[in-house]
Amino acid sequence: MSSKLIGPALSRVDGKLKVTGKATYAAEYNPPGMVYAAIVQSTVPRGSVLRMQTTEAEKAPGVLAVLTPRNTPKLAGAEKYMANPIMPRLAAMQDSEVFYNGQPIGVVVADSFERATHAASLVRTFYVEKPASLDIKAGMAGAEPAQGNFGAPPPGHTRGDVTAALAAASTRVDATYITPTETHNPMEPHAAIAVWDDAEHLTLYDANQGVHFVRMFLSQLFGLVPDNVRVISRYVGGGFGCKALPWSHSILSVLAAKAVNRPVKLVLTRQQMFSLVGYRPQTVQKVELAANAQGKLTALRHTGFSETSEKDSFSEPFTNTSNMLYACPNVHTSQKVVRLNAGTPTFMRGPGEAPGTFALESALDELAHSLKLDPLELRRINHADKDPEHNRPWTSKSLLECYRVGAERFGWKKRPLQPRATREGDVLIGSGMATALFPAMRFPCVAVTRVLADGSAVVQCAAADIGTGAYTVFTQVAADALGLPIEKVRMELGDTTLPMGPLAGGSASTASASPAIQSAATQARQQLVKLAIADTGSPLHGLTEQDVLTENGKLVSRKDKSKGETYAQILARKQLPHVEGKADSNPTPPEQQKHSGYAFGAHFVEVRVDEALGTVRISRIVTSMAAGRILNAKTARSQILGGVIFGLGMALTEETLRDPRLGRVMTADLADYHLPVHADVPDIDVHFVEETDPHVNAMGIKGIGEIGATGVAAAVANAVFHATGKRIRELPITLDKLL
Ligand code: MOS
């Protein structure tokens, strides 16, 4: 079989639908009788709602209902849900407690979005206030050990004797790094439309990263049979982790639909994205390193704190990469969480890896400086040839090649070792690098492929395309296995009526679904082969399966390619509406794996810092990545570009600030929360190192959704140090920190 379709730079199969406005996003459905909801948010950080004055809102034009903690319908499954400690706290107005500023405390339903929004502004709320915890540093003394998220083991690892090794070392680094709270800002704000088909059946159009995952939560909360809940999310305008779990607005849309007995649409404003759908928690990280005179690491201790809400146990697992990135005999990592009166934190692109590599890879740079060693050389010296955390081989690892190729494309050799060595007038020029990495994960997945009577195929899997190209690469995989052109394959995603698919999270979607899709498609093709060779009416009758080739929607004889027939002809003669292949792929649990799977890469960054103004401009970036088999050179490059730009935001601009007295997010729009724009981003040279991985999964695929964002902030901070001699250990690197 050819694999002409796997690998090349193909444009998105859904591109035309998107640019013509025909791809339907969650907020764009309009079921009959639909009305609109708007959320009322708390204005105090802690306490309880004493009374809400709703008369004015109720009398406002077009208003159908005003829900408050007093009259909101109860969630049938809430008690069981809340009893499960790994479930995130969802503020669904089941009681009058307030645990953060911005928490939903009311919902107004009206006949238009504008009327609902206006009426929501008329609600007056009186609170009983309580003292709030709003400062991570003040809370560190009372911090609690971090738990694992959603059943994952708690972060932390020990090998060797780090205390003794630190004490014995001649060269040490001991530094504290801080990353701010950050907020996901996908282009498409969250939206949900809830439709009760009857008392037991619910349909939710929802912007999310995995319909089956969202359904699991919803069916539990509402006490419904999972099969009676349908979640539809066909097109998604970016996810980054904030659309992995259902949030309060989705649940409130369902409760409101129940209350008014009509479909209810609830679309968040950009401002509400900053308080209702999670954030990346702030971290305070301490890294201690020690090395011998040759640069070999002898000790690595990485500890610290991340913020969480008063009610949640979510922790940003920033120490995970320190456990395994470098060959070091003495390692200790552990984490604590500080409870604050803030919303529920969640995963944000490279959760753990992005802020964790900022600390670790900055510290490595500091160590290189102390040792007067080239920072790239220091990383080569400490390369881990096997996974030192689990003491097992890698599925594949091409990091040294990423270093080599990246350094060459960047011209790293010409870099002076000393900082402040290059100047053009007022501008100091420097370069820095850092390692990027992300685990190669997989989730269970079922896929169905049908070859239809007209010879085309449909492939079904309830995975998600969050804007990254899943429709396209899955179509490529199926078309390749079926021997069909891309245009003859229709991919269906994002609906719980489709077979169980993975969450588009953990960079695991492509690696989870592609092998299942390939296997289902191969089965469907094999059935066609079997039908043909067993059928006396077929020109292929009597051949063995090996004698039959697939060619552009046709089966042909290997020996005589003029002999053959189309899929449509085979199905027509047999009077079959279709043939179907179905595959269920279940990943090996991590504890049973014999290898450790990670994608690795490296970023090389050049910055220009105006010494008088403190402004940092990125002038060049080279990123080299090795991530197993690359299915589509174009969408893969875009993934890495997006990841690197995400990292630039982390490095230079993004910071969610809360009012220190009221806990309200003060940077709740794109004027105050600064995302990198075109003028901030130079041309990025993305290079994929070829890597064949025989172990990671049947197709040798590692994820690429998040790795691009890891390591970038450290590479920038290291370049800023090289340019200016100033080490910035607190993100973002804004000009005030450089003056
Ligand atoms: Mo990603 S933070 O696993 O959506």
TrEMBL record:
SUPFAM superfamilies from the UniProt entry: CO dehydrogenase molybdoprotein N-domain-like (SSF54665), Molybdenum cofactor-binding domain (SSF56003)
Renumbered residue ranges of the record's region Disordered: 576-595
Gene3D superfamilies (alphabetical): Aldehyde oxidase/xanthine dehydrogenase, a/b hammerhead, Aldehyde oxidase/xanthine dehydrogenase, molybdopterin binding domain
Aldehyde oxidase/xanthine dehydrogenase a/b hammerhead domain residues: 20-131
Superkingdom, taxonomy of origin: Bacteria
A Pfam family the protein falls into: Ald_Xan_dh_C
Protein name: Xanthine dehydrogenase family protein molybdopterin-binding subunit
Lineage: Bacteria, Pseudomonadati, Myxococcota, Myxococcia, Myxococcales
